[in-house]
Write a structure and sequence with these properties.
mainly alpha; Growth Hormone, Chain: A; 2 domains; 78% helix; 0% strand; disordered N terminus; transmembrane; MFS transporter
Length: 396
């Protein structure tokens, strides 16, 4: 006797899987929008809380550094907890942190709220980015990971400008409050869509550690990915942090052109994220070599040719695919959640390192020189990925 229940059940299961993936993408969107929120509101917040723009900038530095520490610490200390419960708790924490920021009456209170934001960023990003293989069949892992991490790119394109737009009609507190409410609403969506995701069982005898490198050791493939993360992300932020003054001072662009150029860059980044995700699941090393080469060419071309829009599109496509490609490389080499946590740690430290190095070059040499720094580090990344990732054991 035959029945049609099984196909219908499979279809329902497929929809449930992709709803879970989509809710995680919404989570990374709210997460990164929250992290980058002060960028468009810095002057208003500083004026309201009575601090200089430079001091207000610590609202960006603090969560990045806290996230770098929180990612591996939470991966270790919560490894036996259900990931569903952990993600719900971290998103609720983000909602509370944003609402606390909206209510801040002095700068120390605001900075404390931003520290809580950093804890949520480090943990949620590390856990969510590694969930693709647990939510969808193997053949769809690349697509699912691209969707989850697309929240990062879309936040840069839409999230921060939308928050700044909202603050122009109300004030900066409204933007923080809106994100706080959105994060708490997402807790309900995550609870409804995520299946139980049991933590790690107790350790069994035998090889252990990130990518089976042994207790307290990192495997060679994971070392390669972490080195590449530092090189590429540091190089990117050394240049990208100062892309606005470069466009204004070197390219002679006005505010409208700069805004349109950055929006175009962000849109190219979203396209790069999905294009890389479709290909990197099978060959992450080859894809990363291509992406780093695009970044090197684009950043080197900016000071040399009078085609800033074309260079920014190429740069956006290149960097837009970096995050998902590195994440898929970690998965392919068996890095697991702890490997992803170390990746998030390296990523956030590299943001601060790159911005700092770019600032020293911009002040000591010129704004144009930071593009050469970014190009040089991207070119080194090409060599490291091409040589260091060539081993069969690299998972590439």
């Amino acid at each position: 006797m035959t029945t049609t229940v099984e196909p219908a059940s499979e279809s329902a299961a497929d929809r449930a899987r992709w709803l879970a993936v989509t809710s995680l993408a919404a989570g990374t969107f709210i997460l990164v929008t929250s992290e980058m929120l002060p960028v468009g509101l810095l002057t208003s917040i500083g004026s309201s809380l009575g601090v200089s723009d430079g001091t207000a900038g610590l609202m960006m530095t603090a969560p990045g550094l806290v996230a770098a520490v929180a990612a591996p610490v939470l991966a270790i200390t919560t490894r036996r907890l259900d990931r569903r419960v952990t993600l719900l708790g971290l998103m609720a924490l983000l909602g509370v942190a944003n609402l606390a920021g909206a209510l801040a009456q002095d700068y120390p209170f605001m900075l404390a709220a931003r520290v809580l934001t950093g804890v949520s960023i480090g943990g949620f990003w590390a856990f969510a980015a590694a969930l693709g293989p647990r939510l969808v069949p193997d053949r769809f892992v690349g697509r699912a990971t691209s969707i989850i991490l697309a929240g990062v790119s879309v936040a840069s394109v839409l999230g921060v400008p939308a928050a700044a737009f909202l603050s122009s009609f109300a004030d900066w507190r409204a933007a923080f409050a809106a994100l706080g409410v959105a994060a708490l609403a997402l807790v309900a969506l995550l609870a409804a869509t995520l299946p139980p995701l049991p933590g790690e069982p107790p350790t069994k005898p035998g090889p252990s550690g990130p990518a089976a490198g042994g207790p307290g050791k990192l495997s060679r493939p994971l070392k390669v990915v972490l080195v590449l993360t530092v090189l590429i992300v540091s190089g990117h932020f050394a240049a990208y942090t100062y892309v606005r003054p470069f466009l204004e001072q070197v390219a002679g662009a006005g505010p409208a052109f700069v805004g349109a150029a950055l929006l175009l860059y962000g849109a190219a980044g979203v396209a790069g994220n999905f294009a890389a995700g479709a290909r990197a699941a099978g060959r992450p090393r080859a894809v990363l070599v291509t992406l780093a080469a695009l970044m090197a060419v684009a950043t080197a071309a900016l000071p040399l040719i009078d085609l800033p829009l074309a260079a920014l599109v190429v740069w956006g496509v290149g960097y837009g695919g970096v995050g998902v490609t590195l994440q898929l490389w970690i998965m392919r080499s068996g890095g697991g959640e702890l490997g992803t946590a170390l990746f998030v740690c390296a990523f956030n430290v590299s943001i601060a390192l790159g911005a700092f190095a770019g600032g020293r070059v911009a002040d000591g040499v010129s704004v144009a020189a930071v593009m050469w720094l970014g190009a040089a580090l991207a070119a080194v990344s090409v060599a490291v990925a091409g040589i260091g990732g060539r081993s069969r054991r690299s998972g590439s």
